[in-house]
Automatic annotation (TrEMBL):
Pfam families: Thiamine_BP
Name assigned to this protein: MTH1187 family thiamine-binding protein
Family: Belongs to the UPF0045 family.
InterPro entries: MTH1187/YkoF-like, Thiamine_BP, UPF0045_domain
Domain of life: Bacteria
Species in which this protein is naturally found: Micromonospora coerulea
Stretches assigned to the Thiamine-binding protein domain: 4-92
Length: 98
């Protein structure tokens, strides 16, 4: 499965970059395939392991913020692996066809 999520610390002032970096660090240290962009972090794996990473990232931010907002989007497709890169490659191939 793929999970794209965004964690926003609330009540800590305007600059939240350090707390967001802490959350991304948790994801990267998980060992699961992941990608971070300006809006979301996407993680690929089995349900329990991906959700455990999301929870750990939220818990890390919640340890330093009085409130945390979580936005989550999931793509559940049994039997599919490497979806994070394969889906993008498929679109890029279609674009190259012109």
């Amino acid at each position: 499965m793929l999970i794209a999520f965004s964690i926003t610390p609330l009540g800590v002032g305007e600059s939240v970059g350090d707390l967001v970096a802490d959350a991304v660090r948790v994801v990267r240290e998980s060992g699961l395939p992941n990608r971070t962009d300006a809006m979301f972090t996407t993680v690929e794996g089995e349900w329990d392991e991906v959700m455990a990473v999301v929870k750990a990232a939220v818990d890390t931010v919640a340890a330093r913020a009085p409130r945390v907002s979580l936005v989550l989007k999931a793509d559940l497709r049994p039997g599919v692996t490497d979806a994070m890169t394969a889906k993008v490659a498929h679109v890029e191939a279609r674009l190259a066809e012109g």
